[in-house]
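Notes from the 1:1 (GR / supervisor)

We went over the backlog. Supervisor wanted to see one worked example end to end before approving the batch request, so GR pasted a single chain during the call. The sequence is below; no edits were made to it. Supervisor asked that the structure be written out right there so they could see what the output format looks like.
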Amino acid sequence: MVYLYVGPFLSKAPTAAATRHPRVSAGTVTTMTARTVGGLVGFLGLVRDRIAVADAAQFDETSLRVDGKQRWTQ
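Structure output shown during the call:
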């Protein structure tokens, strides 16, 4: 559910509808996303610390076209 919401950039209502389960609402999507983010805090800190001391770091420069203009994802 979280992947559908944050991966392909669907809004909450379409993500909830995509589950095909009648008890999944936009609020459920919000709650599940918050729980997932909370579970990643330690991992993200570890990654940040390792990048900070690495000899080199590679970052993806993925872009999208929005309103005819190139925008960079983060």
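Supervisor's comment: The beta strands are 63-66, 69-72.
Batch request approved.
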